[in-house]
Each structure stands twice: as C-alpha cells, then as structure tokens.
Amino acid sequence: MDAALKLLTPAEYLAFERKSETKHEYYAGNIYTMAGASERHNLIVANLVIEIGVQFRKRPYRIYPSDMRVKISETGLYTYPDVTVVCGRPQFEDNQSDILLNPTVIIEVLSKSTEGYDRGKKFQHYRTIDTLMEYLLIAQDSYHVEHYVRQTDGQWLLSEATHLQDIVHLPTINCDLTLADVY
Question: Are 161 and 147 in contact (CB under 8 A)?
C-alpha cells in the first residue's frame, strides 16, 4: 500500500474515494491504495458470497463483497473487507449507504502483501467494533482457515481448519462453510 502525500480529513477522503476508480483505505489522514486481487483470491471471495448467501435465504442477514466500505468508528479506519456480514439492519455512516458501521462477521482472504496487516493491525482495529463477533482469515495458497470468535468475556477464541473436508461453523450467523466449497 502506498501512502498519499497530503493528510486528508475523513470528508476529503470520502469525496475523493467516491469518485475514484481504485479503492483506498483511510487512516489518520492518510490514504492507502489497495492492491488488486489475484484470480484465486477473487474465486475464494465469490465462493464465500455464494455459500453464505445460499444459507441466508429467509434470514435477516446481509452479505457484502469487497466493495462495501467499513468504518471502524473507534479508530477512524475506513477499509474494505473481502466479505462482510451484518445480522439484522445495517447501519450506515450517512445517506449514501456505502459506509457500514455494524459488521457481525468479517472475512479476509490473505495474500503475501496483506497477510501481516490482516493478522495484526487490521485485526486490532476490527476488535474495537462492538458488533463484530467473528473474524475469518483464509489462506489462498493452502487450505487453511483461521476462525476467531469473540467470547462473552471479550477474548477471542481461535480454531483452525486445514483439510478440504473440514467444516467451519460460524455460530453467530448459524452458517457452515466446508473448505471444499470455499476453495
């Protein structure tokens, strides 16, 4: 990610971003260009949206692919998760309905350039979202899913799946993902 030269206010960032053909994250006055995704990355995201979407029929949940911007109100980060799920009514920052405030589940597909950020600082930002209950990190170069679930005491419990027949159960949204369907 490349930092912009001029510090921007959130309003300046949004005015710029809403006209931009490329996506940018925003944090502390800086904008960061997001790299394009590989074919494998895009296929995994598409599979996730399909699999979760099918299980959401007749349920009050919404699933958004990577074009839905999420704002972490506590830290001021604006970002684009690969997949975002909302239970119930989505809450948006403004009337444009393009900045989600209340994600329930966030899924990131890892790449070499973003893996450290997705595991570290980005997850640190995500953990400040009160509505976020589950976070999945999905490797694209091996069969490996890390599933974090927020516990009632605020801690995060990690479980991992590494075989195509493994099933990851997302209890908050009562959804099952078989790795064979993800990959």
Answer: yes
